[in-house]
Design goal:
Elements: E1 18-19, E2 26-27, H1 61-65, H2 67-73, H3 77-88, H4 104-117, E3 125-128, E4 134-141, E5 144-150, E6 155-161, E7 164-170, H5 172-180
């Protein structure tokens, strides 16, 4: 039998947790008995984000719909906080996205993509488009740039690598494979300005 993981707070146990999108509540499994949390504790060091309140207004629909993928993706604190801000939508913070809240399917596709590339990739800059789709960018220079937009049905991407331009639309897995194996290593580009 699995023992509950200690998250560092007294009486907290989060082994086998899941959020059901229908209710927004935390279902405790595998001996997890009690939840005491913080509102914006991001995923770090093998532990899932903690949730302060269990009502439907606590987490965005995009976060709730992708809870398992968020855990699997092993996001950094910085990336989780950015996704959380984008998922809340307009007006959640100064400088946040100006359109719709982050689309759940778009976030899910990004998380699928990230799971395939995270071992070799640096974190991209992420934003959301006015329609709620997630946009990721790896930028080194005007001649070395990768943009990917996670639409509802595919990943649209454009890669500039020196004098070569590659663009297309494919599944997250196909784009991940293409970019992982590209000789210019665009997933490792980061601006050092």
């Amino acid at each position: 039998m699995n023992q509950p993981a200690d998250t560092g707070a007294e009486g907290v146990s989060l082994v086998g947790e899941s959020i059901t999108p229908q209710t927004g509540s935390l279902a405790l499994l595998s001996g997890a008995t009690q939840v005491k949390t913080h509102q914006h504790a991001p995923y770090t060091s093998g532990r899932p984000p903690q949730i302060e309140q269990l009502g439907t207004g606590t987490l965005s629909n995009a976060i709730m719909a992708n809870w398992g993928k968020i855990i699997k993706a092993q996001l950094s604190e910085r990336m989780y906080a950015k996704i959380e801000n984008l998922a809340v939508g307009p007006g959640s913070m100064i400088g946040s996205n100006v359109g719709r809240p982050l689309d759940a399917k778009s976030l899910g596709d990004f998380l699928d993509f990230w799971t395939h590339v995270r071992s070799i990739a640096v974190e991209p800059e992420i934003t959301s488009a006015p329609d709620g789709t997630l946009h990721a960018e790896w930028y080194k220079s005007d001649r070395q740039r990768l943009d990917a937009r996670f639409t509802v049905n595919s990943v649209m991407f454009g890669l500039i690598a020196g004098t070569k331009l590659i663009e297309g639309a494919e599944t997250p897995e196909t784009v991940a494979s293409l970019l992982r194996n590209h000789p210019a290593m665009p997933l490792q580009w980061t601006w050092k300005g």
